[in-house]
């Protein structure tokens, strides 16, 4: 938190003095990354607004497209389709070809189409900071996906282990903990699809990042 407070003081000073050089860009970019680390998305958004202006006056900035991709992912996380489309048009007009921006646009499309298979495939290619932006989106799509799967495969059973790859979990233990929390019925390594449609519930908790030992839940 010391680093966050330190950078805030610096970039406030930059704003007051209207500094628009590479140093200001470095400060805003560093602060934006720290905001993602601590989950301060309001501050992150402010940094992004400042960076957008700074990149106009410094078009050759090294990380311009990285933070452009983050803007698209942030709008995706907010389900702000209008902003995503605006970013897409603006990017197309530049005729640039950047892998991070292209990936962000593909992820946005997958979310809009609720194509969870494509979303989780693309999520694996995301940068660390991109995954932080999409953290809540990831859990929301997992719940939508399992709800659809229960209906699609009912009255049959579905192997729990397959969800590791489909929904991008770190381990079978992580999958089982999550299924237990949303009250999906499991038996002998399988999900009972028909029975689970009556018991499944939307999670009302904040989910921390997955670790090697599974999923940790933080109750509201």
Automatic annotation (TrEMBL):
A GO cellular-component term linked to this record:
nucleus
Q: Which domain of life is it from?
A: Eukaryota
What are the SAC3/GANP/THP3 conserved domain coordinates in residue numbering? Answer: 43-182
One family name in Pfam for this protein: SAC3_GANP
- Write down what this protein is called: SAC3/GANP/THP3 conserved domain-containing protein
What is the source species?
Lotharella globosa
Q: What is the lineage of its organism?
A: Eukaryota, Sar, Rhizaria, Cercozoa, Chlorarachniophyceae
């Amino acid at each position: 938190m010391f680093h966050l407070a330190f950078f805030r003081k610096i970039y406030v000073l930059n704003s007051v003095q209207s500094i628009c050089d590479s140093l200001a860009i470095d400060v805003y970019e560093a602060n934006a990354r720290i905001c993602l680390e601590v989950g301060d998305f309001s501050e992150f958004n402010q940094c992004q607004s400042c960076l957008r202006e700074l990149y106009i006056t410094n078009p050759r900035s090294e990380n311009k497209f990285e933070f452009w991709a983050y803007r698209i992912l942030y709008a995706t996380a907010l389900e702000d389709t209008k902003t995503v489309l605006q970013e897409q048009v603006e990017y197309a007009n530049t005729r640039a070809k950047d892998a991070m921006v292209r990936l962000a646009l593909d992820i946005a499309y997958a979310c809009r189409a609720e194509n969870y298979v494509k979303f989780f495939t693309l999520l694996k290619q995301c940068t660390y900071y991109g995954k932080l932006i999409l953290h809540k989106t990831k859990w929301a799509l997992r719940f939508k996906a399992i709800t659809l799967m229960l209906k699609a495969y009912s009255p049959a059973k579905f192997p729990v282990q397959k969800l590791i790859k489909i929904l991008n979990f770190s381990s079978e233990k992580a999958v089982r903990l999550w299924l237990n929390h949303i009250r999906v019925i499991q038996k002998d390594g399988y999900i009972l699809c028909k029975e689970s449609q009556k018991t499944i519930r939307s999670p009302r908790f904040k989910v921390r990042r997955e670790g090697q030992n599974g999923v940790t839940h933080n109750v509201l």
